[in-house]
Amino acid sequence: EAITLWSSYTGSNGSTYLQIKVKANSSFNIGDKIIVRQDRKDINGTAVAVVNSSYENAEFLITAITPGSGYTYLKTNIPYGNAISSLIGGSVISRDNFVYRGVFTTQNDTSYTFNGSVEWSDFLTYSVAPYIFGSTSSYGKFLNGNPLREVDLTTDDYYTLQYFGTNQINGVAPTTTTSRRIRIETFSTPLSSSYFTASSISQDNSVLSGRAALVFNSNVLQYFTNGSEVQLTTPTLYTTQILKSTYVNPNTTLVLDIPYSTISADPGPFVLQSIVQRRRYDLSFTQNEGIVPAGPKNLNNLSQNEINSGACYKYTITPIRQEANPLLSTTWGETWTFNIKSRCKPGKWIYWLNRLGAYDFFYFDGTINTERDIVKQNWSRALKSYQSGSGLKFKAGDRGTSTYGVRSIESSTARSRFLSQAEIDWLWSILESPEVYIIEGGNKIPITIVDGTYEVPNKRYVGETGRLYFMTIKWNLSNE
């Protein structure tokens, strides 16, 4: 839905919140989860900067709706910040859309979507569709219900994200196929904790204006990469990032995201140490699928091999519009964070069709129990008896009761870790889903959920107010 005016209102608690103006008879409802986005051009076509980035890339709620003549005001719980000019529009999307198998509706939010979805598979690599995540009238969103936008995975896990979009739609932004990218940013432990002393410093304007450039009399590119977080001692301690790195024998020049004027008067020596090795991969797509492979196993072909080597402990995935200067690339959708961790005990990946028409994943890492319910169908007959001098006798091999049918059903139960209120609300959709699977050895196995419960444990500490839950589900295999 297009936003035609940004304004503010005062809530009952005295705080000021954002109010947005949309067309009359809007299909939004009080309580809807929404995402808002400011246009990057005004009504005259002039490029404008983002006025308040806190409005974007986060979910908020509609708290009240005020209809007018030819328009509707949506009151939100977004804290009001800087004023946005009446010349600048925007867009709002409800995340409470429903997509059923074969039928979908996007509640007039003008998003582009695909009908149906591509299921999980273990061979997906980075060769999917050009990413059309944002447009002049809609903001990008993944079709995943996980409220945290953060997942813990091991290096052997596959994972996928699905999104609204097709591979060629005229009139949407980014307008060129070559500018649509998925950005993967990896965070790894540094290759060396050594300190390196610069031979000279100067001002550099090649990336961003007036930044500090350090020159080293050797090749240090194996220790410092673009985007890496570093500590600079001058002897004042600064924490910053590397914007640009070049090597011309025998010197390496590193441009830091710190103004040259900040450190030019410092006495030195200028000593640099790597804290976090960060790398960016801006990847394009070739196949016509609305799916983004996102698990460590999907990303095992990254050029620096940081996932396979075990150095990477976290990475993020974000749809972007690529610019000539990568630092100025525009985010067009949600950022997801993936933490690479080890698991102390085996669990179960549950994989289910959500109400948006895509698939959600969750790893139940609590107790896993399996049992079998065995039902036998028997028939009985009277045994033939024989009279002898010592009384009534029967043949030793005769059978009075025989089994002609056995039905054995395997049931399993899985228990979750501690869950927040938002997570328990999301996971309850497992019980409502018409398609649920477990993932075993790279294969998806259909199951039928037969029971689900949650419990609220007693608090251990006085004054602990955060509500935590456990969830337990029980299933039967659907192919028995």
In brief:
This protein is mainly beta. Helix content is 4%, strand content 44%.
Q: How are the SSEs ordered, and which strands pair?
A:
Blueprint: E1 2-3, E2 5-10, E3 16-23, E4 33-38, E5 60-67, E6 71-79, E7 90-94, E8 98-100, E9 103-105, E10 150-153, E11 160-162, E12 180-188, E13 196-197, E14 200-204, E15 211-216, E16 229-233, E17 237-248, E18 251-259, H1 260-263, E19 271-283, E20 291-293, H2 306-309, E21 312-321, E22 330-331, E23 336-340, E24 348-353, E25 359-364, E26 368-380, E27 385-388, E28 391-394, E29 401-415, H3 421-427, H4 429-432, E30 436-440, E31 443-455, E32 470-477
Q: Can you offer a commentary on this structure?
A:
The protein is mainly beta and 480 residues long. The chain contains four helices and 32 strands. The protein has helices spanning 260-263, 306-309, 421-427, 429-432, and strands spanning 2-3, 5-10, 16-23, 33-38, 60-67, 71-79, 90-94, 98-100, 103-105, 150-153, 160-162, 180-188, 196-197, 200-204, 211-216, 229-233, 237-248, 251-259, 271-283, 291-293, 312-321, 330-331, 336-340, 348-353, 359-364, 368-380, 385-388, 391-394, 401-415, 436-440, 443-455, 470-477. The strands form six sheets. Strands 10, 12, 13, 14, 15, 16, 17, 18, 19, 21, 22 and 23 form a twelve-stranded mixed beta sheet that branches. Strands 1-7-4-5-6-3-2 form a seven-stranded antiparallel beta sheet, with no helix packed on it. Strands 25-24-30-31-32-29-26 form a seven-stranded antiparallel beta sheet, with no helix packed on it. A hairpin with a 6-residue loop joins strand 14 and strand 15. The protein is flat and about 120 Å long.
